[in-house]
Amino acid sequence: MHFNIPFVLFTLNLLALNAHGHHAGDVILAVNDAATITTSTVAATGVVTARVFGATFGDTGVSRFTTNPGFEAVSATFSVGSRVGFAPLSGLQRWTGAGVEPVIDERLEVKYLTLQTIIGVTPAVGFDLAVQSNGGWHRHLNFRLFTAGAKLPASALYIVELEMYSTDGFTLPSAPMWMVFNDGASVAEHDAAIAWVTTHLARSGSNCIADLDGNGDVGASDLAAVLGAWGTASGDLTEDGATDASDLSALLANWGPCT
Question: HSE (CB half, 13 Å, CA atoms) of 154?
Fold first, then answer.
């Protein structure tokens, strides 16, 4: 009996999604009571609000290419007949070890079938895709790193800032979100870049360092984010390199509305 391997893999992935819900690491889209798109992800404690997402080139077996993270919205999230898309808010940036800087020759291609945009030194125009017939939206875009000039470095980390939007005419765009792409760097370096982006970019609109979801209040979702990041650098509030008891104490000390 002959099996179509790509079709079998697609079917298995679809069954896994239906059986277990969201995929860990994917960008989960929802619409809150203020008719604004929100972004979340799956942590050890469950679904938590997130605005910074990690990605790794080569995780599908192709160098400097990935289809992860995917984007997921459950049924009835968006209006049938509308479209959901992304808009780059800044040019591609490179992690320096202590911050970010604009790229020179590196480019990020984002593609889905015939739709394509290239993010370089300056922001590009994104694109949108149709909402599914059940009002859900599950897409994996193709991300490819390439160079417009000099040879790519042996290893590096790249950051891109995006905004998710709907074309339905009444749903508001998401707050800015960031994707941190690892191209051959260590896991520790990747975690450090994610932690820096979370602290210095994703929280820039809040005067409360423990307000991880940027909603102006330190509460249960922020606690869940810290617990979900325990032992890693992604929930490091005290900037000592790890999420531990000191970060939990900092969060509890700031519990309630940010002032």
Answer: 1
